Amino acid sequence: MDIHGIQEELKEFAEAREWGRFHSPKNLAIALAVEASELLEHFQWLTDDESRTLAGRPEDHAAVVEELADVMIYLIQLAARLNVNLEQAVADKMRKNAEKYPIDLARGNAVKYNRRAIEE
Amino acid sequence: MDIHGIQEELKEFAEAREWGRFHSPKNLAIALAVEASELLEHFQWLTDDESRTLAGRPEDHAAVVEELADVMIYLIQLAARLNVNLEQAVADKMRKNAEKYPIDLARGNAVKYNRRAIEE
Amino acid sequence: MDIHGIQEELKEFAEAREWGRFHSPKNLAIALAVEASELLEHFQWLTDDESRTLAGRPEDHAAVVEELADVMIYLIQLAARLNVNLEQAVADKMRKNAEKYPIDLARGNAVKYNRRAIEE
Amino acid sequence: MDIHGIQEELKEFAEAREWGRFHSPKNLAIALAVEASELLEHFQWLTDDESRTLAGRPEDHAAVVEELADVMIYLIQLAARLNVNLEQAVADKMRKNAEKYPIDLARGNAVKYNRRAIEE
Predict the structure, then answer these.
(1) What confidence score (pLDDT) does residue D108 get?
(2) ipTM confidence
């Protein structure tokens, strides 16, 4: 995925519409959280099992695909505004997670997982 | 960015820890929204201008980079679970946005922007 | 519950700390969403059944009680800032919901519930 | 505000529609976070000052009032499900906040406020 290319395109898109002044990092972070919640809304009354089969229901799937795109679009715009190399950030975080959740301790342990996540 | 490669790595990571049963699309959507809010938390009491200069404050920047990575990691895990090609989804959505917000109507118009965003 | 009295107390609390300039409706709305996500975080890896028995686990319960309070505190501060009578707003919305979800159509119907919720 | 009375009404409302099985604490926590984000959405592209004058714009105000009610409705349903006395929880948290943010240290200090909020 050409993150940098998409960031350039999104920048031109916003500039052509003079939206730069709305796109402060603060506002983009709000927009990202709002879109992530709209995505979550599609799952809110589903059981876990229903959520696992959602991809097989074309109408629901299409709606969710669009929400995923919205989240991604704000995420990479925010990264651009903050001069963050997303690829590097993800690689660094995955290395950190590997240290934080050693396989032996983390295996199948929801409670521990939860506790650790909350302590983060 | 090699989204597919990262998705494979994340899948192995979760499988080694037997976290598959926690990682339903529903739970991943919750985790994504929770991480997006943790990212937002860093901006909540900042003015717009302070958010624009955050990238120049190393400690704040490092914290935000990590939150961006968390959001990205859950986003691409969720996309994998739902068989969504993120790159394609983003391209499709950008084309749709170009039709939805024609340059002439959208230029510098916060109110219209807001209204349209809410109607989505 | 003496909402008005609590609003007065919260106002004095914020004024004594000179936090008024941080407490714009926008910032309070962000804080409310952030706190609601912190509350959600406690449930994110639980099954539905585990969430139904959480009240019986004192440590988890205490943590969740505090998050509920945080959400409530920001909600009533925001209502005060926007001159909203929360009690009236809730009564009006409950009447509206009774019309929107007639018992015959809504009974036990998750899919319809979901669809209608999303269309809101 | 008669929280207990409203909780009884909401319980009857959900029971009449056989929604009890959807209303696990986990699902109510999701719904609460989703509604808090819908509320936030109304503020996302506003400046701080525009958010301070929103109460004077009848159409915007009405929309926001309804979102506040939605948040409150899920909050008190969740509290009922978890056997939480909201009034007591708020009183306890306000006492705790008074100890956590002594007036001398907190006065007008956004950075400290932010740091402390994040550490919570």
Answers:
(1) 76
(2) 0.92
